Amino acid sequence: MIQKNKDYIVKLVLNLSRLHAGLTGLNPSVGCIVTSNKKIISYGITGINGSPHAEKDALEKVKQLKIRKNLYVSLEPCHHTGKNPPCTAIISKSNVKKVFYYSKDLNPLVNQKGLIFLKQNKIKVKYFKNKKFDLISKFHNQYYQRKNLVVTGKVAVTKKNFTKNIDHKYISNIYSRKLTHLLRANHQALLVGVNTINDDNPYLNCRIRGLKELSPTVFIIDPKLRIKTNSNILKSSVKVFIIYTKKNKFKINQLNKKKIKVIKLPTIKKNFFDIKILVKIIGFLGYKNLLVEGGNNLLNQFFKNNLFNNFFFFKSNENRYKNNFFKFDSKKLISMKKINKPINLSNDNLFFYKN
Ligand code: AOF
Ligand code: ZN
Is the pTM of this model over 0.90? Predict the structure, then answer.
């Protein structure tokens, strides 16, 4: 393909960087173009779940071509070994003469470190400030610009706000459930109370074909370690952390054998810990966003502490339950801002709130 002009390349890199947005886990979704002698000879995108990096993807495809190459990439190339090898090392062995990048990487492991290395290896490096990349640059650096974990709540209720259904396993319809699975794919961590596990025996993974790998790590609040050890979630491949307050050596041994991680938290009153501390710990472990899926007690604690940044409220038109114990108090949402009109999903409606 002929390289028409710089604007054409900018557009291509921009579009490539958008392709895997939301699908690259902790990693930003980066786009990359390789040119040689004014022709585009390859392209790359950060892979699903974050591997390979875009530069590696692009350069591998043309590694047999021993010609001079230029690289155009939406983010400054990395220079550290993480889940992936450093892109700067790959670039320096690939006959690349110039690297043009459109956004800086604020990740302290990367920030400018690779540029010196590239220059030392006689590779020209140029930062192209381009307005079109303002948003992508923000997106690439979203986790480093944001100090706190982003917390999103989700609940599905019947017409009269019950969170259980008498004869149905599910309250919401297939469209709402598909959206819930997408929400899971877009989150790195998911939090539930132990009653949800023991009563409903859920898998809590993303079951959209092709996106299963994006299932979040599951944190289960289980102060007295009451979780049933034959629960589906403990048999699945999902990474699980159990948060407890009261020691139970036998149970901890059982869980350790299943490679389940346990975290003990100090109590502030009987079996109660400070939920804000848990949110801090999840952030400290490196997770950038958290989806809280219930039950009611847990959601209430988050509301009480004003911890939700976003809230997804799925409401069905049907009603088949009467036990007030399982009633969601929708007044809690008053403190948040309703965004737009509800999204109609057949006989369900989705209301989206923001703080
Ligand atoms: C690149 N190209 O395509 C992406 C980069 O754990 P790792 O090794 O995958 O490194 C993650 C960090 O690398 C991530 O936080 C971000 O700073 C950078 N992402 N860098 O050169 C890419 N996705
Ligand atoms: Zn890299």
Answer: no
